[in-house]
Amino acid sequence: MYDFNFQSASSIDDAAAKLSAASDGTVMAGGQTLIPVLKQRLANPSDVISLAGAGLSGITNNGDSVTIGATTTHAEVAGSSDVPAALRAVAEGIGDAQVRNRGTIGGSMANNDPAADYPAAALGLGATITTNQRDIAADDFFTGLFDTALNDGEIIKSVTFPNATKAAYAKFPSPASRFALVGVFVAQAADGVRVAVTGATDCAHRGPMLESALSANWSADALDGITIPTDHINADIHGSAEYRAHLVIVMAKRAVAAAG
Amino acid sequence: MAENGIGARVLRKEDNRFLTGKGNYTDDINRPGQTYACLVRSPHAHATINSIDISAAKAAPGVVAVFVGQDLVDDGIGGLVCGMSVAGKGGEVNKAPPRNVLTIDKARFVGDPVAVVIAETLAQAKDGAELVNVDYTELACVVATDGADKAGAPQLHEEVPNNLALDWEFGDSAAVDAAFATAHKVAEIELINNRMVTNPMEPRSAIGEYNSGTDETTLYLTSQNPHVHRLVMSAFMAIAPEHKFRVVAPDVGGGFGSKIFTYNEEAVCAWAAKKINRPVKWTSDRSEAFLCDAHGRDHVTKAEMALDADGKFLAMRVTSYSNMGAYLQLFSVSISTLFHAFLLAGQYTTPAIYIDMKAVMTNTAPVDAARGAGRPEATYLLERLVDVSAGVMDLDPAEIRRRNFIKADQMPYVTPVVHTYDSGDYDASLAKALANSDYDGFAARKAEAEGRGMRRGIGLSAYIEACGVAPSAAVGSLGAGVGLWESAQVRFNPTGSVTVFTGTHSHGQGHETSFAQLITERLGVPIENVEVVHGDTDKGQFGMGTYGSRSLPVGGVAIVNACDKIIAKGKKIAAHTLEAAEDDIEFADGNFTVAGTDKTMNIAEVAFTAYVPHNYPEGVEPGLDEIAFFDPLNFSFPAGAHVCEVEIDPDTGTVEIVRYTAVDDFGTLVNPMIVEGQVHGGLAHGIGQALLEGCVYGDDGQLVTGSFMDYCMPRADNLPSFDVDYSPTVPEHNPLGVKGCGEAGAIAAPPAVINAIVNALGVKHLDMPATPEVVWRAAQAAG
């Protein structure tokens, strides 16, 4: 780890101010990605600005949607009766107990790891990401490998998930990392059937072929015979593109079955 | 049985400190004036070192010193050595290319240390290391186990033409060829024994310290064998003379073989401490451990079995490569040859066996002994080949094993591959394993699983290993540089408590408890009055350390032999005090008694008398403190039968081990609870190899599995609740009746798991690790 200045932000505006004043600063929510990166000397920020004291944690459900503050931990989401079951299950399946007690929803969304679970849930439920500057639809938020629509200095405040009629997430974990080799979130949402896939490509994305099949017939059988093209599918020692593409269908079917 | 003696499930004495955070590991130790070392490591798999510019690093804040390989050479420090020499074809001994502590001419694997930066803080050492400018010319590299000796392959060492460290054969090839020529059927298999990283929970660490007043060097380090470290570093490397060199291996958090060997970083810390006259500490981070700890296994093998019409094994032929990595470590060439080939008879009467083994060098981390060390590789190829043979003969896997077992009444049994098994009843252990696993009920369970869309399979493994290493004359004749006896000292303190010094080393095995149980059993001393001391060359006399499941079969016997000397002397003292003839003194349960009388004297009283000898037998030395050395007469031969049952999800290839049954013959169990723990750990290791763990290098020599994000260690939810049972026999050659248990699970499990998977899928073979994709593809192909 290289030396850096550690600062604690008292609010999201304070965090933004500290960030803009730093020469090469970064904000930290739960630190579950940033700290390992720092320890390996793969990043060298001038300032690390902690959001822990910025008052961004908390869960509110207004009956139509649930809004989760950016620094709410995975464990808090998993344990909240205000959170719909499918979303609780996503949080419950992230990492291990230590990660869930430190990692946050805002950190996960902003990091946009290609194998992260929350981006699939956000896309699958048509969530809205609220920042210190604006609201961003999940469909517009995840733009590429570790890349999002966030501008420099823009910080996530909360994520709002509208209710869905039916929803479920099925994840095939990589045996080693337990990140999603492939994860599929399916939902009958307010705007129709949504299917979101994580782990398979450079970042979470919607699955239009699967959505149209399930729109016509909401059943696992409706996905029989669909072949996912392998062009942009990830491949590594844990899974070839062909295997991952196959798992997309298997996990989608399991998610539909689980959603009921 | 004495209370808390042999056979008692005594809770581990050492766990109080481990479970309350009071363990004392090397990295917990800090010495006054301590500095920190950071190694500069090659980022290239193979590269010529043109120059090393250390000027910027030397000038960096906090940097105390920067050294390169030539600095050690100039000081007369020798390189790392291979402690075994094995004669290959034509009597040609294995090549042993020199290895400088810090490489000078070339880097030969990613992580090869090139320089060291020593600074006031670890961060400053790391900062300094980034400033060392090494000018490399990258060279083509070779990583493939079965490609290193091919024409045109990049050459690692001038001394090793064609990267062939050893071209070795063993066995009667003419007899084997003749048997194959007339065989009823031949079974064959090609398989890979996957490379593993042992990953002890505690990474390696070392602290060198030099006392200029006494000219003594102390090295604290993570070692399974501190005396061997001292011997090698003194005799071959000239780090310090043996009598001025103390090596301390305090609490050590797991070894699995990887902490046997002498490593570069340890030598650097010990040498540099004198050079700068300040303590020097180095602690591996996990990334360094993946890169630089000795790896294990890594064979590419073809095996064939000749069978007669009854399914009897007539002959076996093995043609194999083993990967040594970039340099030979302490045992290296012996593991894939001697410790491998001599177990190829397994539990069977196969009369003729021939093996051709080529040990090759590649641009990868060195490979050496890892839990089982050669025996897992032998067991895996043999037990896979036996299952393939069963398929060829259309026999049940259990039946073909029974037809070929060495029978209990054939013991002692001389195999065609050196070993003489002294005990074992393989029919009995298999029968018990089949009963415990409800082998006969498998068909119904398979049918039920199929109804749920799952494929269910069952697999056997009938393994044997050679433990209790080892008779010194035998290993000497095979090329070992040392003897492999063990020593013990049993010292009564004047107040009747006992301190036991052992040359073995506990790094998870629970010696402080099971060795104390031996004292309780033999001398009748309450277990809480026994302290076991190990791991410090200044405290115990010489010993060979812990590996090869030798601590109890060899070190334990040394302890009880010392106890017998204590008893013999105690009888003289008791006879004098009790005014009886020595021959009339009987010893039992801690008391010396005049036979047929109630005149008795507890051993604590005898000890007090020995140290306060006011009324004492003439000609007897004061004190009660005895040393014994034990050189075993033979290896010990733990064996057993394991049954693995799996359920496979054909849609994803996920394998779940739904049932695992182990029946082992470890002889006498001193502490059954500790044995169960060893079996459980070994099984986790073996199942990890079968399903999860695989060390992967890219063709460019970069380590792909460089962290736990990619290298999959077994976790609790990968494993079932194990069914562990025993089928003991009495080893003729071991005075304690023990055989060793630390490696059995890692040896037995891989073939049991793979046999179960191929049984479930109806395929001939798939390679380890049987990851979901590997299994899914096999399931797809099988239909």
List keywords for this structure.
heterodimer, A: 260 residues, alpha+beta, Uridine Diphospho-n-acetylenolpyruvylglucosamine Reductase, domain 2, Enolase-like, domain 1, five-stranded antiparallel beta sheet, 10 helices, 32% helix, globular, B: 783 residues, Aldehyde Oxidoreductase, domain 4, Aldehyde Oxidoreductase, domain 3, 3 domains, seven-stranded mixed beta sheet, 23% strand
3D structure, described in words:
The complex is a heterodimer of chains A (260) and B (783). The longest helix of chain A is centred in the C-terminal third of the chain and has 19 residues, at 241-259. Chain A has helices spanning 12-21, 34-39, 74-78, 85-92, 97-102, 105-111, 118-125, 138-141, 208-216, 241-259; strands at 5-8, 25-28, 47-50, 59-61, 65-69, 128-131, 135-137, 142-144, 147-148, 156-162, 164-173, 180-189, 192-198, 205-206. Among the domains of chain A are: 1-53, Uridine Diphospho-n-acetylenolpyruvylglucosamine Reductase, domain 2 (2-Layer Sandwich), CATH 3.30.43.10; 165-259, CO dehydrogenase flavoprotein, C-terminal domain (Enolase-like, domain 1), CATH 3.30.390.50. In chain A, strand 6 (128-131) and strand 7 (135-137) form a beta hairpin. The radius of gyration of chain A is 18 Å and the shape is globular. In chain A, the strands form four sheets. Chain A has a five-stranded antiparallel beta sheet with strand order 4-5-10-6-7. In chain A, strands 11-12-13-14 form a four-stranded antiparallel beta sheet, sandwiched between helices. A three-stranded parallel beta sheet of chain A has the order 1-3-2, covered by helices on one side. The termini of chain A are far apart. With 260 residues, chain A is α+β, with helices and mostly antiparallel strands. Chain A contains ten helices and 14 strands. Chain B is an alpha+beta fold and 783 residues long. Chain B has three domains: 15-20 and 485-630, Aldehyde Oxidoreductase, domain 4; 31-139 and 202-253 and 259-292, Aldehyde Oxidoreductase, domain 3 (Alpha-Beta Complex); 295-469 and 634-782, Aldehyde oxidase/xanthine dehydrogenase, molybdopterin binding domain (Aldehyde Oxidoreductase, domain 4, 2-Layer Sandwich), CATH 3.30.365. In chain B, the strands form eight sheets. Chain B has a seven-stranded mixed beta sheet, sandwiched between helices. In chain B, strands 7-17-16-15-8 form a five-stranded mixed beta sheet, with helices on both faces. In chain B, helix 11 packs across helix 12. The longest helix of chain B is centred in the last third of the chain and has 27 residues, at 551-577. The mean pLDDT of chain B is 97. Classes of the chains: A alpha+beta (260), B alpha+beta (783). At the A-B interface, helix 10 of A face helix 21 of B.
